[in-house]
Amino acid sequence: MVIADIMDGVGSLEEQALKRKERLKNLKRKNTNEDSSSSKSDAIQLPKPKFRSYKPQDESLQEVKLADAEPPAVDEQVKDLLEAGKEKVVLQDLDISSLAPRKPDWDLKRDVAKKLEKLERRTQKAIAELIWERLKHGTEENLGAIMTMTDNKATDDD
């Protein structure tokens, strides 16, 4: 019974697919007929361009337009450019260090510099904490050694 219902459903799906194919064929035929008929006739109508006059109708504006319409003095500009090209470039003014290529890892160093500063501060803080821990648990000999080390660092920093 279930198999019969499934077969009926498959049959109806096939019928619907065939109907769909027929409709698509009819649409294709219709489109090809329209294309062939329109290509045979020269009845294709393109929109005609509209040419507009941008000449001002007001007389005061026409005077301004004519004053602006004068061509620039091209001869003078060309002469200036030719004279500028004749001047010699002084190579002594160039800084050779600015021409040298950068090292391949310069961008990595730049990006990592801030992080390294933070790590350096944390490292110094951790070292100081370790020293204080040793001082608390250490003997008097360690205390004397640490005091001399801190004195040496203070004089080195100055």
Strand segment tally: 0
Q: How many distinct helices?
A: 6
Q: State the oligomer.
A: single chain
Strand coverage percent: under 5%
What Rg is obtained from the alpha carbons, in whole angstroms? 45 Å
Name the shape in a single word: flat
Distance between the termini: 102 Å
Helix/strand-derived category reads mainly alpha
* Sheet with the most strands, sense and barrel status: none
As a percent range, the share of helical residues equals: over 70%
Residue stretches low in confidence (pLDDT < 50, at least 5 long) are none
* Average pLDDT: 76
Please write the string of helix (H) and strand (E) elements: HHHHHH
Task: Pick out its properties.
flat; 158 residues; mainly alpha
Short structural summary:
The protein is mainly alpha-helical. The chain has 6 helices and no strands.
Please give a structural write-up.
The chain is mainly alpha-helical and 158 residues long. It contains 6 helices and no strands. The longest helix has 39 residues. It is flat and about 110 Å long. The mean pLDDT is 76.
What's the layout of helices and strands?
Blueprint: H1 2-40, H2 59-68, H3 74-86, H4 96-99, H5 106-137, H6 140-157
